[in-house]
Design a protein that fits this description.
The complex is a heterodimer of chains A (277) and B (290). With 277 residues, chain A is mostly helical. Chain A folds into two domains: 7-58, no CATH class; 68-233, MetI-like fold (Orthogonal Bundle). Chain A has helices at 7-34, 39-42, 46-51, 58-67, 69-100, 106-116, 125-135, 141-165, 169-177, 182-211, 215-219, 227-232, 242-262, 264-271. In chain A, helix 1 (7-34) packs across helix 13 (242-262), helix 5 (69-100) packs across helix 10 and helix 6 packs antiparallel against helix 8. Chain A is globular. Chain B is built from 13 helices and no strands. Chain B has a single domain, classed as MetI-like (MetI-like fold). With 290 residues, chain B is an all-alpha fold. The two termini of chain B are 22 Å apart. The chains are: A mainly alpha (277), B mainly alpha (290). The interface between A and B is large, with 98 and 111 residues.
Chain lengths: 277, 290
């Protein structure tokens, strides 16, 4: 039963929400603009920045020349993709079993897995740091990939479980009755139904690992530092290079921003562990 | 339906995840608790004697501990207040009919995807820098003296930055909850003569109660561990003005190499997070039954 909404009311809503939305988005827009200016023009007053001269794309090249940006970018890619797929490999069978062969303990196991996520990272910082130091995993992509996989594993399992749970068992039974072998059942019936859920799990997990900034800052140095840690190196005097900081930041957040826009809905499911639907 | 064979297969499929998570939980946790009872500094080689509760004593009597506890509470409380109230208002607004709703929602949600080190540095330099930042330019334009954000109001500045990152999260979840509101119930109330305020108070807010609780609990878990934003903006200063518990433990363990005291702090942080987690898990568990 939709009611007629007056155009005036709609225009007012649009104006207010649009203004607030623009304010939230403005910092991101602003670094995109600054990344396209020369250093001396990037620190001018806002209006001069907008309407003045000095537009250039040289900052993007300069960031790479100064500090091998691509290395850190590829570290981010390797670590976030690696931890996601490693996590998926372990989570799919587990979520599968819990969704399709539930037992009395399934709920407790799920809850326990989730509870490991509540452990504050700083509570286990020292042991992990010391273990990594002694095994040579400090500042290695392998070590960081493993840690990020572990901290996100509960979320992956949980999300996959809720998606698998939505697949009706009756369809599987019907396929079996029609003479489908287990292999056919998995390939033609289950996989197509499970793919959307898996895709959004992957997406959310890449976002979380890409932006993770506790372990990445504490366990890496020059070699394995992903973008979170690399950007942190701009923190003191170098921060004054506005154009370069902006260029580095834009490149660091752009891929995730795009993925994030595609996964808004799954975000709610993944981050509230199904408590809000 | 499940046969004995499929049950044991299922157990086999779960076991890698269970074993890994169990190790991940028990080994470091056990080490942290063990270290917290040792006199153990990485700069002083030698044996690490057992000292009982000494580290806890030092940690609790350290003046920066009480400062860090207060800072943690102020930071978490401040951000929760802003994001929850702001999130309700934003969700209420975005739920109204308007043009370009999709685009506006995307703009509101975007900050959540910005990595913490970027948002810390961007706000610090491009906005809050008293000389070159936008706020500084704005103050100059209006004839005020620019504020030195991280010198004069460091905690407020950090709360502001963190709220910018988390407001989208609260908005998104509350918006999802709003959209499951029973429209017929709202119309019935309207027909019965309930005005907007009482509809909000008696129908919408009770409907949102669950989502609001979830937002508060989940955010608290994450906000207790705020680290990167502090590291790149203030380094916990000036003095201990923005040192929260997480940052204090980081300083004592990785900067002062005092494993014993750092571990004692870690145990305190774990206990604190567990109190919140207890309530969160109960809510999630209830939903799992439904």
């Amino acid at each position: 039963m939709a009611r007629a909404i007056s155009t005036k009311r709609k225009a007012l809503n649009t104006t207010v929400a649009g203004t607030l939305g623009f304010m939230m988005f403005f910092p991101i827009l602003w670094i995109v603009i600054l990344s396209l200016k020369t250093e001396e023009n990037a620190i001018r007053a806002p209006l001069e920045v907008l309407f003045g001269s000095g537009w250039t794309t040289e900052s993007f090249g300069a960031v790479q020349a100064r500090s091998n940006y691509l290395k850190h970018f590829s570290n981010s890619v390797v670590i976030s993709l690696g931890s996601t797929f490693l996590g998926l490999l372990i989570a799919i069978p587990a979520a599968w079993a819990m969704a399709f062969v539930p037992s009395k303990n399934t709920k407790n196991v799920l809850m326990w897995m989730l509870s490991t996520k509540m452990l504050p990272p700083v509570g286990v910082l020292i042991p992990i740091y010391l273990i990594f130091r002694d095994t040579g995993l400090l500042d290695s992509r392998l070590g960081l990939t493993f840690v990020l996989m572990m901290i996100n594993l509960p979320i992956i399992i949980w999300m996959l479980y809720t998606y698998f749970k939505e697949i009706p068992v009756e369809i599987l039974e019907a396929a079996r009755m029609d003479g489908a072998t287990l292999r056919e059942e998995v390939i033609y019936v289950l996989t197509p139904m499970a793919i959307p859920g898996m895709a959004s799990t992957v997406l959310l997990n890449i976002i979380l690992s890409w932006n993770e900034a506790f372990w990445t800052l504490n366990l890496t140095a020059a070699q394995a530092a992903p973008l979170t840690a690399f950007i942190a190196s701009f923190s003191s005097p170098e921060g004054l290079f506005y154009a370069k900081l902006s260029a580095a930041s834009v490149m660091a957040i752009a891929p995730i921003l795009i993925m994030g826009w595609f996964s808004q809905k799954q975000l709610v499911r993944g981050l509230t562990f199904g408590a809000v639907k | 339906m499940a046969t004995k064979a499929s049950r044991s297969a299922a157990r086999l499929m779960i076991s890698p995840a269970v074993i890994l998570l169990l190790l991940w939980m028990i080994v470091p946790l056990g080490m942290t608790i063990y270290f917290s009872f040792l006199r153990y500094n990485l700069l002083q080689p030698g044996n690490n004697p057992f000292v009982g509760w000494e580290n806890y004593y030092w940690f609790f009597t350290d003046p920066s501990f009480s400062a860090a506890m207060i800072n943690t509470l102020v930071l978490v409380g401040g951000v929760l207040l802003i994001t929850t109230i702001g999130g309700i208002l934003f969700a209420l607004l975005l739920d109204q009919p308007m043009w370009g709703q999709g685009l506006i929602r995307i703009m509101v949600i975007a900050p959540f995807f910005v990595m913490p080190t970027v948002s810390g540095l961007v706000w610090k330099n491009m906005f809050m820098n008293p000389v070159n930042g936008i706020f500084g330019h704005l103050a100059q334009l209006l004839g005020f003296a620019p504020i030195d954000f991280f010198g004069q109001i460091p905690m407020v500045s950090i709360i502001f930055i963190v709220s910018w990152q988390w407001l989208p999260f609260a908005t998104l979840i509350l918006l999802t909850a709003f959209q499951s509101l029973d429209q017929e119930q709202m119309e019935a109330a309207e027909m019965d003569g309930a005005n907007w305020m009482s509809r909000f108070w008696f129908i919408m807010l009770p409907h949102l109660a669950r989502a609001i609780t979830v937002v508060i609990l989940i955010q608290t878990i994450f906000l207790l561990s705020i680290f990167a934003e502090i590291l790149v903006t203030t380094n916990g200063g000036p003095g201990t003005a923005t040192t929260n518990l997480t940052y204090l433990i980081y300083v004592s363990s990785l900067l002062q190499y005092d494993v014993g005291i750092g571990s004692a702090g870690g145990v305190v942080a774990i206990i604190l997070a567990n109190i919140v987690a207890f309530f969160l898990m109960r809510m999630i568990g209830k939903n799992l039954d439904a």
